[in-house]
Write a structure and sequence with these properties.
Elements (H helix, E strand, L loop, with lengths): L1 E4 L12 H9 L4 E8 L5 E3 L20 H5 L12 H8 L4 E6 L5 H13 L8 E5 L2 H10 L4 E6 L8 H5 L4 E4 L6 H9 L3 E4 L5 H10 L3 E4 L8
Parallel strand pairs: 1-2, 1-9, 2-4, 4-5, 5-6, 6-7, 7-8, 8-9
Antiparallel strand pairs: 2-3
Bound molecules: SN-glycerol-3-phosphate and magnesium ion.
């Protein structure tokens, strides 16, 4: 069972901050999930929403602000919004990373960053999973660098179960706990894909998901996940 820290360990620390990622590492996760957007000056920054309002003391669209402006904001407990490169530097190969592409136009730059990491030899292709609800972005990843592992996010149960994920060449399908069922899991496995479910926080849900046969879980409290 792959234990995945959702936005780091956001049940304990401000989401998508270095502090949250350090906590996830301390809790012994197998993978850390976080979300990326592109800011106005072109850097990939780690933040969930397309606006800074909910998670920082600022206001405005991430895509409308440059890095200098974003770095002036408080993302909680005095933390700054991290760059993708800063998260990779902090983790330094100690666990796997799930980069969720939120903003448009993030796929090509993310490919470049991952490829550079693998060339430095500290990281391997299997250390990265790139996911998105936007499957066209995933298709770009596939085209740019077929060695990158892909996770196809979904809310709901589509006709054809995981066929959509097979079509983008996904390694894993990532459904929501709200809709997941056994038929969906069995279908994904038959198609040769892993099933990682989000977001599982309650102890009874953790047991239920395990019994249903998922391969991994995202949790805001990753220490609650057990093998
Ligand atoms: O990847 C699982 C989960 O992060 C997807 O939803 O909204 O938390 O990014 P969200
Ligand atoms: Mg996410």
């Amino acid at each position: 069972m792959v234990k995945i820290g959702h936005r780091g360990a956001c049940g304990y620390e401000p989401e998508n901050t270095l502090r949250s990622f350090s906590m996830a590492l301390d809790l012994g996760v197998d993978m850390i999930e976080f979300d990326v957007h592109k800011c106005r000056s072109g850097e990939l920054v780690v933040i969930h929403d397309d606006r800074v309002d909910r998670t920082t003391n600022g206001k405005g669209y991430v895509s409308g602000m440059d890095l200098r402006e974003l770095k002036n904001l408080d993302a909680g407990k005095g933390e700054k919004i991290p760059l993708l490169s800063e998260v990779i530097g902090l983790v330094d190969g100690r666990t796997r990373l799930n980069i969720e592409l939120k903003g448009p136009g993030t796929a090509v730059d993310t490919c470049r960053v991952i490829s550079d990491c693998v060339k430095t030899k500290k990281w391997a292709w299997k250390d990265f999973l790139v996911s998105s609800f936007n499957h066209y972005e995933l298709r770009i990843i596939r085209r740019e660098e077929p060695r990158i592992f892909i996770g196809a996010l979904i809310t709901g149960i589509p006709i054809g179960y995981s066929k959509f994920a097979e079509r983008v060449g996904a390694y894993a399908v990532i459904p929501s706990i709200e809709f997941i069922n056994k038929k969906f899991i069995d279908d994904s496995h038959k198609r040769g894909m892993k099933v990682f479910v989000y977001t599982v926080n309650e102890p009874e849900d953790i047991i239920r998901m395990k019994d249903m046969g998922v391969d991994g879980m995202f949790s805001n409290f990753p220490d609650r996940l057990r093998d």
